[in-house]
Every structure is written in C-alpha cells, then in structure tokens.
C-alpha cells in the first residue's frame, strides 16, 4: 500500500525505498520545506520592519478603547501531508513534503526539517480518520513526541505537532498553480522516477549478462536517516551538562552478571551489531561491546535472553552516544542456571 511503515520500523534498514521515496530524496525534501518556511517568515519580518506588513495595529487603533496590537510575523511553518490531504486542500508545495502516507515520517525527517529552519513542523492527519489504512499511522503520535523530546534536549527552537487543518501550510490566495501541490503533478513525478529507476535496473542487468562494464554507482547507504539524525544533532552542538538522551535515540544496555548464563546469544542475534562479541576476558569470561550509535532499541536482545539478565534503560548520556569507542561489557563464563525467566 506504499504506507512506508515497514521502512521506518525496520531496525536494520533491510528495506530500502526507491526514488522518489528513498531516504536521500525525503531528507532533501525536508530541507527544502524547512528552508522555504524560514525564508517566508523572514520575508514577513522584513515587511513588518519596513511598515509594509499586516495592518492589525492600524485597524485596532481605529476602534474606540482598543490599544493597537503589534503585528507579529507568522512562525517558520512547514510540514508533512499525505496524498489525500494534498488533494483535499490548497497546500503550499514549497513548505510541504507530500507523501503517500505519514507513516513515512520518523524523528530523523522532523529534526532535519527543524535544522533547515522550520520552527513549527506540522503533520496533517485530517484524512487519517477515514482512511482504510489508518493503522499504518497508529504510532505517529509517539514519533512526534519522541522527535519533540530530541528537539528539546538539544534546545532546538522548534515544535512538532499533529494538526487536522491546512491553515498554517496553506498556499496564499494569489499563488499560481505552480506553487500548489497537485495530485497529477505528484503522480507524474513519482511515475517518471519509477520509470527511470526501472530503466536503470534493466540496463544494469543487460550489461551484466553481456559482460559489459558499467560505471560504478554508489550503493544505497544503510540506515541513511539514522546517521543523518546523529549528524544533525552533533552539528547542533552537544547539550550542556551531558544530558540523558531520549530513548528514541538509544537506551543504555546493561547485563546483570548474576543472572547471565554467558551464552552471548544477545550479541549473536543483535540485528544491528550494536551488541557484539569482542573476544575473551580473563577467567574464561566473554567480552562484549555495546555501540550506542548502532542501537535502535528494537528489543531483540531482551527478547532473546532466557534469564532476563539484560536491561535497556533511558540513562544513556550524550557523550556516550557520540563516543568513538564502544563500551565494554564482560559476561560470565558459559554456565547453566537453575531458573529461566
């Protein structure tokens, strides 16, 4: 159904979307929308500074007993909308990222849009209530809350919220058709991108069959959004006081040696290799390493442990998240414990 939920939920980025919904395209679209929102807000502010803005103060001054109000510039507002919302409303294309479904949106896209200049980031969910695939966005409020916690932790001046009206991202009345998202234009772009991708794939197959060499094409980068999110946060500057990062970024993984059997299955089944074997420790024990930057809090390690020895808590600090070296965890020598979880 092209809802995108599988892409955003997969902890290993095993599912890579193709153009026009690949990670690079969506990240670039988020930047464009955020920058357009910032430019629009700056334009309003400049007009007000020159006395050419809204005449609210003048109108209020004409009313008896009313004090003139100082006109305020609208915030730099951008957002995400699904195709149904696009068809139903007069939405500003420059400040809106149009998607087949809002399940494509995750914390990385929201933070990336904020870093580009958006101060209000809206997710338009008006059509979701009547959509037959509404279950795809059941976790959207959680995603928005997680993104807001990340923004607050890094003290980024932006607010993400779910709305049901297009007022803040509506196109102006005098905007021409080129500035408004249309269903025909959206599908035309998607169709052309898909045809181009299919043509490239067919050409590559023919070259492989005939033995012809082709120019090296860059491989899709696994977990592109994850690394972009970490890059954005690092570029924004580390919060003062070595703050605890929201669990949406990564938890702290600890292993209780008293309850651990030493089987190391947790490391063997970790899908991202955030937890992995690193060798032997003195006394026949096993040395594991935990790399917080790779952890997606998928819960595989805790589900694998038969003795409940693993804990994932929201106590990881910013410095630990961006540490260059993984943290060492020593577990006991392989043994049999009397009780399982």
Strand content: 5-15%
Number of strands: 9
How far apart lie the N and C ends?
A: 39 Å
Segments where pLDDT lies below 50 for 5+ residues? 53-57, 175-187
The SS-based structural class is: alpha/beta
Strand neighbour order, sheet with most strands: 2-1-3-4
Q: Helix segment count?
A: 11
Secondary structure topology:
Elements: H1 5-9, H2 23-49, H3 56-62, E1 77-82, H4 83-88, E2 96-99, H5 107-115, E3 120-124, H6 140-153, E4 159-163, H7 183-210, H8 224-236, E5 252-255, H9 265-269, E6 275-281, E7 285-290, H10 300-304, E8 310-313, H11 318-321, E9 327-331
Parallel strand pairs: 1-2, 1-3, 3-4
Antiparallel strand pairs: 5-8, 6-7, 7-9
Helix pairs in contact: 2-5, 5-6, 5-8
In short, what is this structure?
The chain has 341 residues and is an alpha/beta fold. It is built from 11 helices and 9 strands.
Explain the overall architecture:
By secondary structure, this protein is α/β, with parallel strands linked by helices. It contains eleven helices and nine strands. A hairpin with a 3-residue loop joins strand 6 and strand 7. The radius of gyration is 25 Å and the shape is globular. The protein starts with a helix and ends in a 10-residue tail after the last strand.
